Amino acid sequence: MARYFFHVSDGTLVLDDVGVELPDITSAQATALQLIAEILKDGMIGPSCNELCWRVEVTDSPELGGERFFVVNFSITPLTSP
């Protein structure tokens, strides 16, 4: 099993210094999606925000500069009425 690190950014980077041991990249992708769901569920997004862009970068290192396996970008953009 490999250890994957899930670094989260919303303009400010939060490094994952613990990581998670997972059997493969498919499991890491599923874990990244679960992390995104938790971010949204836990209300880290305030009601007064106009636009939010988040990123989860999955690497092999708790620090910057490790091998990047994939990045998941997600955003919330309110639509205005015409």
How would you describe this protein?
This protein has one helix at 25-41, and strands at residues 2-9, 13-14, 20-22, 52-59, 68-76. It has one domain. The longest helix has 17 residues, at 25-41. 21% of the residues lie in helices and 37% in strands.
Q: What topology does this entry show?
A:
Layout: E1 2-9, E2 13-14, E3 20-22, H1 25-41, E4 52-59, E5 68-76
Antiparallel strand pairs: 1-2, 1-3, 1-4, 4-5
What is the strand tally?
5
> N-to-C SSE series?
EEEHEE
Number of domains: 1
Number of separate helices? 1
Backbone CA Rg:
14 Å
Give a brief outline of the structure.
By secondary structure, this protein is an alpha+beta fold. Helices cover 21% and strands 37% of the residues. The protein has one domain (2-76).
Give me some keywords for this one.
single chain; 82 residues; alpha+beta; five-stranded antiparallel sheet; 1 helix; 5 strands; 37% strand
